[in-house]
């Protein structure tokens, strides 16, 4: 491999295709953290003093995000939502806890079994929509925890691959509601905390390389319950385009944010067909009252 572009002395450890950048270990890690800091600034995600809650799954993205933010000197704490998916939840939780210990930052755990009386496998036996319900449940508990504990922002590990493939899927299916909210930072309000995706300009490859060089042990298994079939089709399509035309993902995503998002966003109210209300039972923002979590709780009891 070529020499590092920065120091021109050491052999490059990583080659970043869409930046055409060969870098040694030290300068790759430096590049990664600087690019993260620039992304946070560019999108005005949060201030240097912000109290940040990192949504932790135990996978590479959330752990890399936590490590890099911590290295940049941000005040971070993690939250793991235990979904009760037997071994998978146990192992992910252990990975998350070991990592938190290593970087000496607090990790909070919310168990949906304790909170609602149900686990995701229980939901699976009741409804086919358990996987999207699972996503909503996670968002509910992350948001509630962040707000009740006065965090300024909730950050998630969504990367460029995730954002570009979901953008493709939202566009092909003209899901205007999702497009109108597809921005790497969403402001607080109406019971929602501020949300940000600081890794939105990093590819899965760059994140894996950061994890490898920082010796981060993360969970590689995917959730055994998640069907994901259609999501994968879009991800594979995007990968194919990227291979044939390097830089497609970042161009597609960044051009959307620059050229198209402002148009959608200006009319966001029109796209939100159901205005939000507040759940009378738990007080969380909801499309109707009681909210879906309170309904699940009632079902579990009954
Ligand atoms: Fe939600 Fe698997 S993580 S269904
Ligand atoms: Zn170097
Ligand atoms: Zn509720």
TrEMBL record:
Binding sites annotated in the UniProt record for Zn(2+) 2: 279, 282, 291, 294
Keyword annotations: ATP-binding, Metal-binding, Nucleotide-binding, Transferase, Zinc
GO molecular function, a single term: ATP binding
Residues that bind Zn(2+) 1: 4, 7, 24, 27
GO annotation, biological process: tRNA wobble position uridine thiolation
Cellular component, GO, one term: cytosolic tRNA wobble base thiouridylase complex
Residue ranges annotated for the 2-thiouridine synthetase TtuA-like N-terminal LIM domain, each copy included: 3-29
Protein name: ATP pyrophosphatase
Species, as recorded: Thermodesulfatator autotrophicus
């Amino acid at each position: 491999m070529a020499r590092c572009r920065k120091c021109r002395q050491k052999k490059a450890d990583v080659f970043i295709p869409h930046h055409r950048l060969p870098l040694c270990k030290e300068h790759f890690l430096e590049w990664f953290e600087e690019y993260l800091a620039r992304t946070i600034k560019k999108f005005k995600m949060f201030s240097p003093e912000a109290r940040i809650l990192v949504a932790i799954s135990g996978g590479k993205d959330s752990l890399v995000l936590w490590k890099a933010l911590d290295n940049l000197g941000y005040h971070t704490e993690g939250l793991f939502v235990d979904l009760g998916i037997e071994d998978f939840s146990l192992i992910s939780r252990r990975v998350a806890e070991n990592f938190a210990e290593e970087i000496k930052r607090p990790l909070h755990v919310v168990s949906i079994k304790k909170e609602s009386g149900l686990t995701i496998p229980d939901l699976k036996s009741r409804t086919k929509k358990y996987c999207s319900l699972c996503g909503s449940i996670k968002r509910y508990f992350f948001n509630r925890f962040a707000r009740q504990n006065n965090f300024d922002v909730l950050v998630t590990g969504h990367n460029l691959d995730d954002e570009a493939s979901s953008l493709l899927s939202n566009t092909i299916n003209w899901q205007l509601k999702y497009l109108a909210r597809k921005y790497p930072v969403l402001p607080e309000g109406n019971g929602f905390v501020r949300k940000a995706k600081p890794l939105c300009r990093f590819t899965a490859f760059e994140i894996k390389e950061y994890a490898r060089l920082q010796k981060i042990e993360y969970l590689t298994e995917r959730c055994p319950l998640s069907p994901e079939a259609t999501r994968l089709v879009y991800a594979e399509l995007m990968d194919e385009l990227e291979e044939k035309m390097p830089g497609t993902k970042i161009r597609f995503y960044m051009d959307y944010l620059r050229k198209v998002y402002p148009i959608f966003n200006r009319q966001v109210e029109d796209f939100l067909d159901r205005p939000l209300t507040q759940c009378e039972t738990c007080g969380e923002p909801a499309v109707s009252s009681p909210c879906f979590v309170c309904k699940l709780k009632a079902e579990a009891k009954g």
